[in-house]
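Assemble and predict.
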Amino acid sequence: MAIDNDQLKTNKINIMKYKSQKVAYWFFALSMLLLVLQIVYGFIMGFARIGFDNLHDFIPFNTARAVHTNLLVVWLLSGFMGAAYYIIPEEAQKELVSVKLAYVQLISLALVGVVAIIGFHFNIWEGRKFLEIPRPLDYLVVVNVLLFLGLILTTLFTGKRRTTTALVLSMGLLFAALLYLPGMLPFDSQVTDSFFRWWVVHLWVEGVWELIMGGILSFLLIKLTGVDREVIEKWLYVIVGLTFLSGVLGTGHHYYYIGVNKIWLIVGGIFSALEPLAFLAMALFAVNMYRKGEKKHPNKLALYWTLGSAIVSFVGAGLLGFAHTLPQTNLYTHGTLVTAMHGHLAFWGAYAMIVLAIISYSLPNMTGRKLYESSRGRAAFWLSNIGMIGMTVAFGVAGVAQVYLERKFGMDFMTVQKEISIHFVVLILCATMFATGIVLYIVDFYKHGTPTDEALEIKE
Amino acid sequence: MLSKKQARAFFLGGTLVTFLVFILLTVYSLSASNDQTNHENLTDSVVRGKEIWESNNCMGCHTLLGEGAYYAPELTKVVDRLNLKYDGNGEEVIKSILMSEGPWQPNGRKMVAYGMTEQEATDVVAFFNWIGQIDLNGFDRIVSPLAKDKINS
């Protein structure tokens, strides 16, 4: 496929600057593959819930569930890593220190992920929600992440400049690695086990991952809106400041009813009620920068995903999180499908969409093929978003009905499940729409082809 | 107007302070005088039960302390609940489900057939009994006092 040289020359804002940035492509490709698998296992669970558990002998629900959530974590991490390999060289103005080691890191990440997923089908796991990967593989994850961090941090600190965007992104990645460790501590008591498991899970998604998201968001806004870096990065500090101020003590909302002191009802209640502020700030920030910006960047699709991520994360993580975070409400909703409602839109808005945003932005730059005018790309955006919002509503209705019937009227668990199974039919329909959007996104990804140095040379 | 330097100070300062408070609260809530994790009643059997619970990823369907996958019943007070349902034979019912060679599916939703030994099943029951005695700040499967009276009468 020929590259439209003239178009690229007139449009220098949209060009890959360093050869080593191409590594990012393969991390993104791995992300796409794992995302498809994640959705397949989601469907297996959806069908099991409406009575079609035909795969039970090979993929029982607990296997599907562990695969679904672990694939989510691995594809997002792969996306974050790809984002870092793309962003850090450009921010530090230096080629990545070793492209070869970056590929070693990619392949080992994929291998650890695949081995873990296969193991889940043979009852080999640790059985701790979200951290099901068995202990020996945990050590490999640590080695893998250390290699990744080594490459990123060496590039950053030997580079020409250290921008706030790059520092916040790297800090998020470093802390994410450090916070994996409390999840590896052995405990005899289920209570303390769970207590420290949340140090990983909560402080990841409501803490350091938001640094990663903020860093990627800031990079994209600088590129797409043309607003001065100093302005954008100042607000980045405010946002990540709000994140930690509310998010760290907000961990307490997981400690209300698991057998620890009542102090967490107060602390968790107050601080987790503040958590939406960080997401609100993020949404206002993104929309304002877009309004302020004078640059009309041609890659509208990347802009859709970027602003979409900031807005949907406020609704999914901020508002829907707030909906059940107060202890008085959580007493009823704890351990029900209400959590699944919040979880789906929060992860989609905050993390999935920001990864899809950086892919949409960087893919045309790496491959030199500008497909962002296509209606397929826009259809992918709208179908996946409307589908996911429909899924969230289905989970929400099922969850609220479950709370009333089971928690208030004392009906038996399975009787209630039968009553609410119709909402899972709706869920599957909406999920089909969502999956169609994702398939279109991946078709777009495939049509871009692989990265080429031509995309780089045109600049000179 | 806020400068970038002040914004950074807000971020670093806020993070440091909240993290320190978080560590202090962790120490406070797990200290001996405030502990309500039922730690003193942990037996070898309970610990073995927890190990079985984890190595079979029971949380991948059930919930325990409200944490899990919402596909199968909450098991926090399961012994009490089944005692009510089966005239005080809750423990025996649980053991027979765990030791069953065929999938247990009382309501059409299948559970993996684990075919556990008598000892393993006893350990899991010990684990459930231990979990059931934890002070959960008022969390129960049925939260409404009204519904609770209805069930118990």
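Chain B touches chain A through 71 residues (CB under 8 Å).
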